[in-house]
Amino acid sequence: MEIGKKAFILFIISLLFMIGMIVHGYEQQDIHMLIQAFEYSGADLNAYSLHVAIPYGKYKNNQQLLSEGKELSQRFHLPQSKKLVEIGLEKGYLSKGSWGKASEAELQWKRISKQHQELYLVFKLNGTDSLEQFQKDYQQLLEILQKNQMSPIINSCIQGNINDKLSNIQQVVLIEKIIHILGGEKVETLNTALVKSISAYSPKIQHSIWTGHKKMNVQVATHVNKLTQTTILTMGTPIITIEY
Question: What is the DSSP string of 150-168?
Answer without folding.
Answer: -----EEEEEEEESS---H
